[in-house]
Amino acid sequence: MTELPRRALNRATLARQLLLERADLPVPAAVAHLVGLQAQTTHTWYVGLWTRLAGLDPVAVGALLESRELVRLPVMRSTIHLLTAADALALRPLTQAPIERSTMGQFGRRLNGVAREELVAAARALVEERPLIASELGRSLAERFPAADPTALAQAARAWLPMVQVPPRGVWGRGGRAMQAPLDSWLGRTPTVLAVRDLVTRYLAAFGPASVRDVQTWSGLTRLADVLDELRPTLRSYTGEDGAELFDLPDAPRPDPDTPTPARFLYDYDNLLLSHADRRRMFGNPGDTDYAAHGFTGDGNLQPASVLVNGFVAATWTVARERGHARLTVRCFRKLTRAERTEVTREGAALLAFLHPVDDHDVWIG
């Protein structure tokens, strides 16, 4: 098998993630291609779309949430993602088992034997009457099931009854509590299950080349080696630097490893950094930088907002606002070349213009 060095994996992944050049795609098409964006924060994921798409209008994206063409709900790894309506209906049943497993492992004992069917029926009746935040749902369910813990009841309802977070939460420029409504009622359609093999090929199209462990890390599903073996005749196989077998779609882009890459700003939960078991394809040579010291723990928890320079994570960024002025602070892990510094400054100024268009702003690089 052909070996794919880290730089080749880096360029291939960037191409599929729409990060080598901004794509001229409708937002729903881009979200579908990416198989969703992590969106447990209400607004930072807008940066994930801005850095990938040309001429992004955040107000129009928020309108897609209000028109129900896009939704936010727990799917892969029980984490809230932004998905198209069609993908929400197809992916949520497929991720049911890992969502239940993680929820019951933490809250199952506190349910005190509440029957699943009864809890689902009671929860559905409540959130179809009007959307509720988790604490309200838990308190209302506790009136029906007084022996159970309210928090456990709310979490079990979230696991057993697919629910979306409804607008205005997540809409650009607006706020709102995390109100929940049933997925099928919200969209007026019945969920349909996507075949696991189709999920795997869509992952490869957006994140490949990848190992079995990579696919499992992203999806939360287990025992996918058999699925990839079944798909093997339709895939290409490579070897990573560590000897792991990597699978890929035959016609997927694999740019030259020396392809120039623009500076790109990523948001805190950007899927690019959280969707592989081996994340070295995005972190250059780990021996050169103590990434953990900069907040990149590799355990799936909150990662800092980061900057890609020459394709690899080379800095973190934050924005502070005061009296109509916004400052973007970029903290680098290495010394940037003059050309890199100019490019990061230019891209950072564009990010500030997107986030705070009416403010004065400046970019500080240190």
Write out key terms for the chains shown.
single chain, alpha+beta, 3-stranded mixed beta sheet, 14 helices, 39% helix, globular
Biggest sheet descriptor? 5 strands, mixed
Enumerate the strands of the largest sheet in spatial order, edge to edge or round the barrel: 9-10-11-12-13
Low-pLDDT segments, ≥5 res: none
Distance between the ends: 43 Å
What structural class results from the helix and strand content?
alpha+beta
Provide a descriptive summary of the structure in words.
The longest helix is centred in the last third of the chain and has 18 residues. With 366 residues, this protein is of the alpha+beta class. Among the domains are: 148 residues, no CATH class; 83 residues. The strands form four sheets. The chain has a five-stranded mixed sheet with strand order 9-10-11-12-13, with helices on one face. The chain has a three-stranded mixed sheet with strand order 1-7-8. The relative contact order is 0.13. The chain is built from 14 helices and 13 strands. The chain is 39% helix and 16% strand.
